[in-house]
Amino acid sequence: MKTGTQFVLKRDRLSDQIAENLEEMIFSGELSVGDALPSERDLMQRYGVGRPAVREALLWLNKKGLVAVSNGERTRVTEPNPTDLLEQLSGAARMMASRPEGMQLFQQTRLFAEVALAREAAMNASPQDLETLGECMARNRAARNDIADFARTDDEFHFAIASISRNPLITALYNSVLGLLQDQRHTSLQNLEALDAAIECHQRIFDAIAAGKPDEAEVAMRKHLKDVENFYWKVRAEKKKEGRQSP
């Protein structure tokens, strides 16, 4: 990267223009993962701006997960991280999930994703995967009388299925969706029938995956998630009705 070239920038939003130019260099391959960016002084000279504009641009690229900014060290291009990518969407996603229509969209998204993941697991699960999944299911069953622990081990079971995909973007996406649906899980489990229904469905899902039967795994997962949705909306309706009847 040549540091002596002078760029002429518009005088508004200088840091944005710097960030966009550096971003283009990263995407084009001119700057590769692990490469150090020029020093702040060199960037100031290159773009004809003050230190605040350069620092703001670097911090924005850091927030987007494109570079790592460390005190006393040169800023470097970093390997993309799926989790960092999805965290940028977390604020808007949480606002969406807080509304009934948004919750329905996330429930549908989870259904699409997990049905596919269950099929994938039934076709590709290794003996080690099945051992891990069986241990998760046993911990979940043992937590029958502790709602908080049941919810935690329920997450473990479902995440173990997602992990069989061996795809870090899929597991990061799935983890994000699970986080957004924590209210659904804790709300639905207030109906005691939900626990027994979940345990029964988990067993069916595990059995289908262990037997290498993707169609059965899909059917079992679909039923499980539809049960969870139904219990969630039932509990919410009951609470709303109780609120109207309160003096």
What do these coordinates show?
With 247 residues, the chain is mainly alpha-helical. The protein has 2 domains: 14-79, Winged helix-like DNA-binding domain superfamily/Winged helix DNA-binding domain (Arc Repressor Mutant, subunit A); 86-245, Four Helix Bundle (Hemerythrin (Met), subunit A) (Up-down Bundle), CATH 1.20.120.530. Helices cover 72% and strands 2% of the residues. It has a two-stranded antiparallel ribbon. α1 crosses α3 (51-63), α2 crosses α3 and α6 runs antiparallel to α9 (168-180). It is elongated, with a radius of gyration of 24 Å. The mean pLDDT is 86.
- Integer average pLDDT: 86
Our estimate of the beta-strand percent is under 5%
Q: How many strand units?
A: 2
Biggest β-sheet description: 2 strands, antiparallel
Distance between the termini: 71 Å
Topology:
Blueprint: H1 14-28, H2 40-47, H3 51-63, E1 67-68, E2 76-77, H4 82-87, H5 90-97, H6 100-124, H7 127-142, H8 147-163, H9 168-180, H10 182-188, H11 192-210, H12 214-245
Antiparallel strand pairs: 1-2
Helix pairs in contact: 1-3, 2-3, 6-9, 6-11, 6-12, 7-8, 7-11, 8-9, 10-12, 11-12
Feature tags:
247 residues, mainly alpha, Arc Repressor Mutant, subunit A, Four Helix Bundle (Hemerythrin (Met), subunit A), 2 domains, two-stranded antiparallel sheet
Give a brief rundown of this model.
With 247 residues, the chain is mainly α. The protein is 72% helix and 2% strand.
